[in-house]
Amino acid sequence: MSTIILDAKIRGQWMLVAVLATLVTGVGLFAQPASGAHFEGTFENPPVVGWTTYSEGTPFGPWTVTAGDVDHGPTPAGTTCQGSAGQCVDLNGSVPGAISQVFDTRVGGACQVWFWMSRHVQQATQATLVPSVDSVDLAAVTHNLPGVARNDGKWEQKTFSFVAAGPTTTLGFRSTTSGAAGPQIDNVSVGCRPPAG
In CATH, what is the architecture of 30-193? Predict the structure, then answer.
């Protein structure tokens, strides 16, 4: 048995988790591949003052805008980002937008995605997005907590799972909310369990 220390982002806070696992099988272990394109789920790069709008085809940090446009920065949707610090993304710039990131996976690996969701302060009742894996849409996710305000985005953690189909996976988020005010996301994290055998 060997002790492996993993970085896990749980409820927006980093903590070290000691996991006892058999290196031969990796049973019970959620981890990124040992090398290659690791997933980066924060939106801290590039640093922005206020917010910046990126249009389709524009990369920012490890993400790329794949449709419409999005707003990025510390206040892209008129509220503070998750944890009241750092940067996040409003998936509606002037129109509904989408973003994606490609990262390494292992074929057959069972993966779990966690992300924090809020909505633009101008969206009084709700905003909805659709996550995707390798361009296949998953179930829509809605943020409808009451009381969203400029100093409180009422951030809520969401999660979904998938099985990796190839050596790389494309993870995406797409707004299905019309107009220039939509869902916002922050602090996305992914953990993958290596396939058995």
Answer: Sandwich (2.60)
